Amino acid sequence: QVQLVESGGGLVQAGASLRLSCAASGGTFSMYTMGWFRQAPGAEREFVAAISWSGSSTYYDDSVLGRFTISRDNAKNTVYLQMNSLKPEDTAVYYCVVRRTYYSSTWYTRPHEYDYWGQGTQVTVSS
Questions:
Q1: What is the pLDDT of residue 104?
Q2: Exposed, middle or buried, 95 (CB in 10 Å: 0-12/13-18/19+)?
Q3: In this predicted structure, what is the pLDDT of residue 105?
Q4: CA-to-CA distance for 72 and 22, rounded, in angstroms?
Q5: What is the chain's alpha carbon radius of gyration, rounded to the nearest angstrom?
Q6: Eight-state DSSP code of residue 14
Q7: Positive or negative, the Cα torsion across 99, 97, 39, 62?
Q8: Which whole number is the average pLDDT over 38-66?
Q9: What are phi and psi for residue 91, nearest 5 degrees?
Q10: What is the pLDDT of residues 66-113, one digit of tens each?
């Protein structure tokens, strides 16, 4: 079965950087859009970033644009999220997601539009 396993979360100070990884297994993901969501305590899940099947196109929420970079390595079935200049408001559980649509060029930003979810990794940014 499909499994997404995130890693790389932790506790850092404001201004620091973290790199999240998500290893996908149980299928071939090179033709699917992949992305990241996050959920802060008491808040709804929100879109962070997405990357096209080829990795040539990316899309970001305005709150992370210019600070976060999403990338993927299809040979490794892995997607990454490089997070720089972290702020306390970035504190959340970060989830890796996959949308099972072949070679899509449309961006999806709502949770129900994604088919597979990881278990999440905690990112805590102290001030």
A1: 83
A2: buried
A3: 82
A4: 9
A5: 13
A6: T
A7: negative
A8: 97
A9: -60, 125
A10: 999 999 999 999 999 999 999 999 999 999 999 998 888 889 999 999
**Sign of the four-CA dihedral 85, 82, 122, 118:** positive
Could you tell me whether strands 10-13 and 68-73 are parallel, antiparallel, or unpaired per DSSP bridges?
unpaired
Question: Is residue 22 within 8 Å of residue 121, measured between CB atoms?
Answer: no
pLDDT tens figures, 11-50: 999 999 999 999 999 988 999 999 999 999 999 999 999 9
Taking 90 as the threshold, does the pLDDT of residue 63 lie above it?
yes
The backbone region for 18, taken as left when phi is positive above 0, alpha when psi lies in -120 to 50, beta otherwise, is beta
> Which residues make Cβ contacts (< 8 Å) with residue 117, sequence separation at least 6?
4, 95, 96, 97
| DSSP secondary structure string for all residues of 33-96 | EEEEEEE-TTS--EEEEEE-TTSS-EEE-TTTTTTEEEEEETTTTEEEEEE-S--GGG-EEEEE
Q: What is the residue whose two structure tokens read 């129900």? A: 112
